[in-house]
Amino acid sequence: MKNILGRVTAALCAGVMMSFPVNISAAGTQEDIILPSGKSLMEVRLELNAHGTADTDTDIVSAEVSIFKGDEELCTEYYGEVNREKHIAADETSVYEWGSISKTLIWVSVMQLYEEGRIDLDRDVREYLPEGFFSNLKYDDPITMLNLMNHNAGWQETTKAIEVRNEQDVKPLGEALKDIEPAQVFRPGDVYAYSNYGAAVAGYVVECI
Fold first, then answer.
1. 144: left (phi over 0), alpha (psi -120 to 50) or beta
2. What distances in angstroms separate CA 53 from CA 48, 70, 138, 147, 164, one per listed residue?
3. 130 secondary structure, DSSP code
4. How far apart (Å, rounded) are the C-alpha atoms in residues 201 and 195?
5. For a Cys staple, 138 with which of 70, 143, 163, 184, CB 3.0–4.6 Å?
6. What whole-number distance in Å separates Cα of residue 83 and Cα of residue 112?
């Protein structure tokens, strides 16, 4: 395996990304800054440091954690080694596999378009896509953005050809989605079935808009 970072828990690097060496602004001390959890920045830092330096039997080998307040980075910390064999510590140059954290960015982008009045979450997403985009649908029911967001558009999950090893093999998103379109096995809205494909379709809708 070229890089062991794919085994890091992606959740540590998203959501409320938190951490350590600190550049605290004039807004206040670490004790004064209260985070959405109700805890102070100092409390969270201490808890993170305890977890980040603990010896565990998990597959997590390293992590980067940051805490932000609006556009301001309150602090960032790096834990563990990105390469245990060579004892290379995690730092600002470490690259992590995003995994499903990328879905968070998709949904944020969708909601930004919604707030701008440029997308209707209850509208058939085919109205935003090139004509005849899907070729493997079982049902004529509309597939809405809410279906995509709730993983109930009806698609069977697939792992077919969703990863490539060489940069030159990366295709434009729309082309890739047409190439790997899975079977639609459920009527939209009827069954929850986690769908990476559906999330990617949502990303392409954003691109098309």
1. beta
2. 8, 28, 51, 41, 34
3. P
4. 10
5. 184
6. 38
Locate 153 and state its tokens.
């558009």
Residue ending a domain, among 89, 116, 131, is 89
Same domain, 71 and 160: no
Q: Mind listing the pLDDT tens digit for each residue in 115-162?
A: 999 999 999 999 999 999 999 999 999 999 999 999 999 998 877 666
3-class DSSP string for 63-110? EEEEEEECCEEEEEEEEEEEECCCCEECCCCCCCCCCCHHHHHHHHHH
Residue 94 belongs to a domain: no
As a whole number of angstroms, the distance between CA 48 and CA 200 comes to 32
pLDDT tens, 92-122?
999 888 888 899 999 999 999 999 999 999 9
User: Which stretches within the chain are classed as H helix?
Assistant: 41-52, 101-115, 145-149, 173-179, 196-208
Q: What's the pTM value of the predicted model, to 2 decimals?
A: 0.67
Q: Which of 24-33, 88-97, 196-205 has the lowest mean pLDDT?
A: 24-33
Does residue 20 share a domain with residue 65? yes
Cα 78 from chain centroid (whole Å):
20
Q: What is the CA radius of gyration of the chain?
A: 21
Listed range (2-6, 50-54, 201-205) with the worst mean pLDDT: 2-6
Q: What is the residue range of 67's domain?
A: 4-89
